[in-house]
């Protein structure tokens, strides 16, 4: 008898992504807010000082709306982003490890970001800036992860106010 793992086809993943937030900006926003809140919960578990501040920037231009969710929590390193976003459905939130977080079967942020026109996670951690774009291309969920850059205060300000970064989660 042969035993094997059953692999998920990219068409199924694309269907699940589309069903996740169903193109609804409020659902995507709620997912990103929940992820920011979870990051603060992990900080609280380690007794790290934090203000728990989450900011939402929204700008309407014609028929389009652009939003950014920004927190000042843990942030994610380039390696952490790469590990968390390379697999759809993997345990990435820390829920499996007993962390007091929400978690959504390793799909929540991917669904939220891929459902946007230009969904990104932009993160500052340990004086480094990482930028990941998640998108659907046909029936495939894709990611583009830029090389990490040295973070500066100017970058932090530009990233928050830049039109190019709207539709993203800024962290760290």
Give a description of the structure.
The protein has 172 residues and is an alpha/beta fold. It has one domain. Helices cover 33% and strands 26% of the residues. The protein contains five helices and seven strands. The mean pLDDT is 81.
Descriptive key words:
7 strands, 172 residues, 5 helices, seven-stranded mixed β-sheet, alpha/beta
Helix-strand pattern:
HHEEHHEEEEHE
Number of DSSP strand runs: 7
User: How many DSSP H or I helices?
Assistant: 5
Which structural class should the secondary elements be placed in? alpha/beta
Average pLDDT for all residues: 81
The biggest sheet, with number of strands, parallel, antiparallel or mixed sense and barrel status, is:
7 strands, mixed
Give the overall shape: globular
Give a summary of the structure in a few sentences:
By secondary structure, the protein is α/β, with parallel strands linked by helices.
SSE blueprint and pairings:
Layout: H1 10-21, H2 25-45, E1 54-61, E2 64-71, H3 78-85, H4 108-114, E3 120-125, E4 128-137, E5 140-145, E6 149-150, H5 153-161, E7 168-171
Parallel strand pairs: 2-7, 3-7
Antiparallel strand pairs: 1-2, 3-4, 4-5, 4-6
Helix pairs in contact: 1-4, 2-4
